[in-house]
Amino acid sequence: MGSPKRSVLITGCSDGGMGSELAIAFHKAGLKVYATARNPAKMAKLVSLEGIETLELDVLSEASIAACAKKVPSLDILVNNAGQANPAAVSDMSIAEAKALYDINLWAPIAVIQGFLPLLLKSTSNPLIVNHTSVTSVAPIPFQAAYNSSKAALSMVTDTLRLELQPFGIQIVQLKTGAVKTNIGENAKKFVVPDGSIYEPAREALLSARETAFTGMGIPAEQWAREVAADLLRKTPAPALWRGGSATTGRVAALLPYGMFDNMLKKMTGLDRVEQIVRKLD
Ligand SMILES: NC(=O)c1ccc[n+]([C@@H]2O[C@H](COP(=O)([O-])OP(=O)(O)OC[C@H]3O[C@@H](n4cnc5c(N)ncnc54)[C@H](OP(=O)(O)O)[C@@H]3O)[C@@H](O)[C@H]2O)c1
């Protein structure tokens, strides 16, 4: 009898996103895949693939995490992929909404790890936890500070956990992903410049910069997933994987002196225009 397949559970596998493509890439690599989403009806693409098991998992609900863990007999790899964005200037952001974003991007992955740790501790097949952070955990992209900082916090949790779980033989990897074409933009709240905002005089410039800021940067999710699955299936994966459009730029920027990429980021997001208007340079 052959040894049982290595198994992986992924959160946030709705059609069109990176979780769904990662599920397919792991499936093609021969793993037993548990693909999860808070709304299983959104996993139509995966349901049609024999061998992928789709399960309901709302990462914001401890009851849902516990119920899902009960349905999984054994687990070798856990991928915390579910996440959201909510763009807003720091001076305009709703603190309540920013806290809700942290619930999804920071506290939920921790709760999911706690829920599945008992299964991972029993794994004898190179147990691995993967957290989806972002290149924005090191790149201060303007008008998405809540998102950037939630990912930076998750990045530090991930690095800390890497040491805390070493005695137990569980490896930890974070995905410092750059731009990838998914539904994240449509799923996010629309970026607005509210009346009374300090940015109001440059509203049009900011909104139009936002429209084009990331255009053309994103790589297909399928390509990203193929590369990341191959990276993760190495015996000892790198603790941080930089894949996706402009991920390498972000990685280099993190090593360079502070502010080297400020002008690029300001131009990309329309802040150069704000400066011209506010300082009456026109
Ligand atoms: N796309 C990029 O350029 C990029 C770059 C760096 C990092 N990332 C990260 O990559 C991960 C995947 O994002 P994506 O780009 O593939 O976006 P996406 O297409 O919007 O997928 C996000 C997934 O997270 C799920 N989700 C949100 N809240 C959830 C909850 N409470 N419980 C369970 N699932 C929940 C969504 O479910 P619903 O469909 O039900 O909303 C969806 O399945 C995220 O962590 C994101 O921050 C993305």
Automatic annotation (TrEMBL):
It comes from the Eukaryota. This is NAD(P)-binding protein.
